[in-house]
TrEMBL record:
Keyword Ligase recorded: no
Domain of life: Bacteria
Gene Ontology BP terms: fructose 1,6-bisphosphate metabolic process; glycolytic process
Pfam families: F_bP_aldolase (PF01116)
Keyword flag Nucleotide-binding: no
Name the UniProt record assigns to this protein: Fructose-bisphosphate aldolase, class II
Cofactor binding note of this UniProt entry: Binds 2 Zn(2+) ions per subunit. One is catalytic and the other provides a structural contribution.
Active site residues of this protein: 81
Amino acid sequence: GLVPVSDLLKAAEAGGYAVGAFNCNNMEIVQAIAQAAEAEKAPVIMQASQGAIKYAGIEYITAMANTAAAMVSVPVALHLDHGTSFEQVMRCIRSGFSSVMIDGSKHPLDENIALTRQVIAAARPVGVSVEAELGKIGGTEDDISVSNADAFFTDPEEARRFVQETAVDSLAIAIGTAHGRYKGVPKLDFARLEKIRSLVQIPIVLHGSSGVPGEAIQEAIRLGVRKVNIDTNIREAFVDRCREVIAANPDEIDPRKILGPAREAAVELIREKIRLFGSSGKA
Ligand code: G3H
Ligand code: 13P
Ligand code: ZN
Ligand code: NA
């Protein structure tokens, strides 16, 4: 069955590595994540955003993730990515998600704390782990649009208070990453991460990790990041390969001849990320 993200991050904490959290919204990407994790003997997190759930249907997402987990030997978690309401979180828990994110980062601190506490009160008794977010990560999120100028980094003292008052399982922080593609090379605020880490004892989550140089990802992991979110790089690998196949075979009408190679490209990309995060061989 599906395992809570918190179990995977506890092991990652003990082992000094990070678990990859890969966004999925169709069967081929679910299969690619499972195949890559199995090939690398790595624990893995499949995550679905509210947009992914709207696209595929919540029943399909949970059924595909459960089937994938049953077919591999490695532990698999199914996590809600950027849940924005208590109701959305409840739908996911009822449907079988093993972990949820409640993203209250657009709210004032006290409201974010209250919302996160409400989610934890419902999730923890049924064994579902909870990720929260503090600070504003750049880029576009479901129901959350943050312009670059409006993106605020996580305040370490607020992080300490947030974790103390919520007892949340893991915390997503803003230290210079952004969702989607970067225009230049992102510069991460490692001093801030180090400060947060000294005040907060729980696993840290890095969002917007596509496009961040490998050395920066590894430095972040050295400083306490235990979950690394990747979506955009999977989309690029998948759709670039679709384009290549169609360009080379303009008359191709069999979806399998296009989506099969795209799935293969996603497997290769995800395997590389798993090795970068140090979780290869940890299952
Ligand atoms: O953080 C956002 C993820 O990349 C999901 O994106 O809302 O377009 O599914 P999405
Ligand atoms: P990227 O699309 O930049 O990889 O971000 C993914 C993410 O943070 C999902 O929550
Ligand atoms: Zn994110
Ligand atoms: Na990114």
